[in-house]
Write a structure and sequence with these properties.
elongated; alpha+beta; single chain
Length: 140
């Protein structure tokens, strides 16, 4: 068997696991989008939020290997923020904007709302020229 055939076989054997991980990460990104839309509180939806799932611009391989990041641009009114997320040790681990990071062990509505509000706060701080508090990388 050639190295090429071995590579193709490995990619095929792990396709189901990669696809399940990609679906989980994309579902997370969609849930985060909905959390951002409702981050202002009940009855106060943010209508200027859109989601565009994209290939992770930092990936050098396609399809994305297991454990790799999945990405989306979230438009927040006048700006856009890139959010990257992956599954790591059973949690969702990710990064956003200029240095924001997170890890969610659970993805309930309250967890996602807390992350959405933190993203809004950190993006506002970035545009205001304020430093981000990177010590809060774990939300729960």
């Amino acid at each position: 068997m050639s190295e090429f055939d071995e590579l193709q076989g490995i990619i095929q054997r792990h396709a189901e696991r990669r696809q399940a991980e990609a679906r989980a990460c994309e579902t997370f990104l969609h849930a985060l989008y909905h959390a951002l839309r409702s981050a202002s509180g009940p009855g106060l939806p943010l209508n200027n939020v859109t989601l565009d799932v994209v290939p992770d611009p930092l990936h050098r391989l396609r399809p994305t290997p297991t454990g790799g990041f999945h990405a989306a641009w979230l438009r927040l009114g006048l700006c856009e923020v890139l959010v990257r997320v992956r599954r790591y040790d059973g949690a969702f681990q990710g990064e956003y904007g200029d240095g924001g990071v997170f890890r969610l062990d659970t993805t309930g509505e309250d967890d996602l709302l807390a992350l959405a509000r933190r993203i809004l706060k950190d993006v506002a701080a970035t545009y205001a020229g304020e430093p981000l508090d990177h010590t809060l990388s774990r939300l729960n």
